[in-house]
Amino acid sequence: MARIILNSMKKTVLAFCLIGGFIFSEAQTNNKEVFSLTNVHHYVGPSVVELADPYLSILNYTGYGMRLEYTDVRYFNPHNPVLSSYSRIAGLAALTVNPQSTASVTYIGGNVAWGMLYEYRDFSNFVLLAGANVDFDFAYKMNSRNVNNPFNMDLATDLNAMLGVRYIYPTRKRTLKFSASIEFPLVGCMFVPYPGLSYYEMYSSKAYGEAIHFSSLHNKQGMKQQISIDVPFKYSSWSFGARMHQLTYQVGELPYSFNEFSLFVGITYDLIRFSGRKVAVPESFISPGY
Amino acid sequence: MKIQYFLLVMMLAGLSSCLEEFPYPANTYRENFETLWKIVDTRYCYLDVKKINWDSIRTVYESRLATDTVDEETFFYAMADMLAELKDGHVNLYSAFDRSRYWNWFTDHPANFNTSLIYEDRYLGNDYRVVNGLRYQRIADGKVGYVYYSSFGDSFSDRNISYLFQYFMSCENGLIIDVRNNGGGSADLSGRLASYFFERDTVSMYLRHKTGSGHMDFSEPVPMKTTANKKIQWRRPVIILTNRASYSATNLFVCMMKDAPQALIIGDKTGGGGGLPLSNELPNGWMVRFSASPMYDGKMQHIEFGIDPDIKVDLDLADVVKGKDTLIEYAVDILTRP
Lengths: 290, 338
Prior knowledge:
The structure holds 2 protein chains of 2 kinds. Chain A has helices at 2-30, 199-205; strands at residues 34-36, 38-52, 60-75, 83-97, 104-120, 126-142, 151-170, 175-191, 212-216, 220-232, 237-251, 254-271, 284-286. By secondary structure, chain A is mainly beta. In chain A, a hairpin with a 4-residue loop joins strand 7 and strand 8. Chain A starts with a helix and ends with a strand. Chain B is built from 12 helices and 12 strands. In chain B, 43% of the residues are buried. The chains are: A mainly beta, B alpha/beta. Chains A and B meet through strand 8, helix 2 and strand 10 of A and helix 1, helix 2, helix 9, strand 7 and strand 10 of B.
């Protein structure tokens, strides 16, 4: 009799353990914290550059360069993955010559941007992106043949609009991603000295205000366009694409322009960011790159 | 609603994509001529001050274009002649085979300088010191310091000047800085050299720049301070020797030194060159340099036409025969006068 009671208790305890364990494990699954990954891109590639800078010359300069770019995207709230932060650091070095190849302009430029992107995933396999960023543009252009105006600097900050579309195309082996994006400046301010104003005068008088101008679509028009394909491998994706940047801006009657076409290859991966020794590595992730 | 926002942004993108194309001049003789004429017409700063009728000059040279464009060299020298009408040493046309220039600002006047004289034993001699373009020696029995500076293109540092002044510590009567035949160089260096002779910051020049294509479209005058060097200062008399070949940055240096507390300018009027030159290009790749920003002295007088010395002294041939430089002798005489 006692053995029967003992077996019955064993079965009851076992049943409780199984049920309790199941409930406990379900509770663990439901409470798993979703963690935002940072989707990082590194691009590098050759560029064809064409620029016109009336401060240095009335002529168009064309040449070749090398572009490096880093961007990252991360959801603000992983539980509501629609809004993500966007940041970018880019650099370009190029050597250009005038049509007669009698003088050259060395171009070194950089761009830093931070913004936000909103995602629409209502269409199957399509992701639409819209957002804005604030960027800071810097470029140093040197025409060593010139006297007293051997260089000019581009400094500008803009509020830019961004639009993009991503198509996710699953194949048998891997899921490819086709992306296209555009970006264009809306309003900002830019440093453009009138060609008669020398840096010597600005440096001596410390009067830089005259060279700072408000910019908007009326005097600054530009477009950055990019198409790319991401091919995933084991831990990262490789990107291949093309990028075009057209920019014109005008101060007084003098037109400045910058056009760049570049091909690039890059790597895309997700990055975990967390801090503290006692913080466990999160188990559930979400990345805006997918 | 989301789609509406999307369409709005797409419309803005479409608006932004209407990029305007700007025409660039073609590389023809006619376009090169037009471009050169226009650069001078819109950006050269002394057309009205020098009373140059640039429109009539265009008419003259345009009528010659048929004969002036037989080949590249003929065209170059025709354009050089057109630029020479500006009578400006800061105006040059650079091609692959020649550089046009206007030198009458000093060739039309007495030289007042003989290079071999300053290397006589009584001046620099053979054992002079030289540092970064500054040649210096004690003269007049060690009572006076003498520095010959031939180009403001030769840079120097505070350390160089510190050693130079230490070397002249025993020269109690003063210092001579000879900038004859110094055709200029860096305006920054001219300000730096002047800074050692000022006890306080002084506005000794004004600068304006073109703000439009009109001949008199200029900014308000910007005061240019000669900043006194805080660490190194020469507080004894200093005499600056000048001639007509003291030009451009040297002209600026003399303009600044006019206001230095213990300085005296001796010699001939400077050659001028008061316009800060800038460069541009023609469609055929030639470069043109021209005066773009006029500079003025402390009384808002143009310094383009030269700066008068405090004491006019010419080189005397009788002294030259004796191996003496009249200007240096005159300066020594003033400095050593009891």
